[in-house]
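re: ur question from earlier - yeah i can do the single chain one, its not a big deal. heres the input i used so u can compare w yours
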Amino acid sequence: MRYQHTVGKRTLATRSIVLLSVTLVFFSGCASTPGSAKIPTKAINVQPTTFEDPFEDPFATSFTDARKLNWDDQNAIHPDPWESLNVKTFAFNRYFDRVIFKPFASGYDWIMPDSVQQNIKNVFTNLAMPRRFVNSILQGKLDGAAREFVRFAINSSIGIGGLYDIASHPFVGIDPSNEDTGQTFAVWGMGSGPYIILPFFGPSSLRDSIGLIFDTALEPLTYIAFDTPVTNPILPTVLSYGTYGTEITNARSLHLESFANIETASLDFYISVQDAYFQARQAAVNDQGGLRNPSGVLNKE
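and the output i got, formated as tokens:
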């Protein structure tokens, strides 16, 4: 009986040790799960660093279908391989806007009546017709190209050089389009590519940055400085840059409140601008409106 009692005590002790070990393993496993780990709550735009092919260039697949964004997934990470440089450029743009551009645009807004600002915007919108016309054709939107041609004819004549957007009046009902080369590339199947913050111009992508070069070539104002008499090369150059400066200042003054609201309401302004950019560009590709550079310093739209 004594032997059996001793064996029973040993058996009970062994079971207790086993039970204690299982309990410790269970709780240590729970402590290592993602749900219980204390991680930073700040959104970090982490980029994938592994690829199926170890010799594959991560930038060579920027335009493939695998890198296209899932616009229905709001948690999708935008391709931002140059984030460290983008953050610095983003900070520079904000500083330039806060110290120089915004005060200048605010003074311009205080001096110029809203109606005059709208007239100036109408003129530049009318002059940008070639960009929208050509890209409408390249995207196969012949109705859009015809609409742009008719709008230009009406606004340039009855609208006194585009001062008044007569074509958009409900009685006429010819609404403008907003086509550019970046959208054309998207329609042709090109992905957005890496996210880029351009100095002064703000958020962009590799695809839209290339498109911006072609858009600049389609802007009539670009050629003012080149159509220059040899005897007086300064005046047209000043006129070209002065006209461009008037355009972007006028546009910035029209967006003072919207930009301020975005910045005030954002917990992470960099991520908010990035998301706003990609959403706006996708909306533009889908013909749902959208600016090319939301909250860009030199946003002309």
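Residues 1-10, 22-75 have pLDDT under 50 and may be disordered. not sure if urs matches, ping me
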